[in-house]
Amino acid sequence: MMKKDLLLRNPLHQLGLTSEDSLPDGSFGAVLARAGIGKTAFLVQIALHTMLRDRNILHISLDDPVEKVTLWYREVFNLLAEKRNVQVSAPLWDDLLPRRFIMTFKVEGFSVPKLKERMTDLIEQNIFRPHTLIVDGVPFDNDVRDLIKDLKDLSAATGVRCWFTVRTHRHEAPTPDGMPPQMASLQDLFDVSVQLVPDGEDIHIRILKGLETPPRDTAVRFDPATMLINEPE
Which of 19, 26, 103, 206 is a Cys-bridge partner for 195, taking CB atoms 3.0 to 4.6 Å apart? Predict the structure, then answer.
């Protein structure tokens, strides 16, 4: 019942991000925002929802150590339960943990062949088979098209979908079609793009691409105090 309550009371439903169709096998999604706005916390909420649905998450961090990523998950999980007035138990958290595997790389040492080798080891030894990848820390300010294209090929071959964090900058103007410049040469590789946009004390959630909708601001907000997705009032 606790798991069901967390699933049913998830504001991701308002964004269309809770079904398999929102990001099918082999598809890519991006969460874009300036530094410190909440990209990682947003994706951790997507990851936790996936885990609650008994799907496996492979979280790849190029910025943070395992301990910090682990803390993100536990803190966001506790905040979600508190926000939704759901009493959760230690056994529920313990049941979720096998659904998550964390890998860390240094940015300069990250490559698709290395990731493929480590993923293959996990799968072939029946240790862990991912359903969704969270990739946090790719330097999108650089030319990463070849890297993203290779990841797209790996995603298609393994049947996983991938979510990425994309860091944007306050001083940069969007392209004529409204995309941050980091995505200008990558739009054909991404199926869904969501931007977190600060506006005073609020953070708007803007759909830039995908989710069967034209680009738009949603009524859903991202709380800068708790880093949680909030349903409209």
Answer: 206
Burial class (CB in 10 A: 0-12, 13-18, 19+), 146: exposed
The identity of residue 180, as a single letter, is P
Q: Which long-range contacts does 81-90 make (Cβ < 8 Å, 24+ apart)?
A: 81/6, 83/226, 83/228, 84/5, 84/6, 84/9, 84/10, 86/2, 86/5, 86/6, 86/9, 87/2, 88/2, 88/6, 89/2
CA–CA distance, 190 with 186 (Å, rounded to integer): 7
* Element at 90 (helix H, strand E): helix 90-96
In this predicted structure, what is the pLDDT of residue 18?
Answer: 58
CATH architecture of 2-13+27-224: 3-Layer(aba) Sandwich (3.40)
Domain boundaries, the chain: 2-13+27-224
**Is residue 180 within a helix (H) or strand (E), and if so which, with residue range?**
none
Q: How far apart are CA 125 and CA 111, in angstroms?
A: 22
Report which of 44, 42, 53 is spatially closest to residue 20, judged by C-alpha positions: 53
Q: What pLDDT sits at residue 166?
A: 98
As a whole number of angstroms, the longest Cα–Cα distance in the chain is 50
Interatomic CA distance for residues 83 and 75, integer angstroms: 12
- The span from the CA of 40 to the CA of 166, in Å, is 10
CA pair distance 51, 102, nearest whole angstrom: 13
The H-or-E segment that residue 195 falls in is: strand 192-199
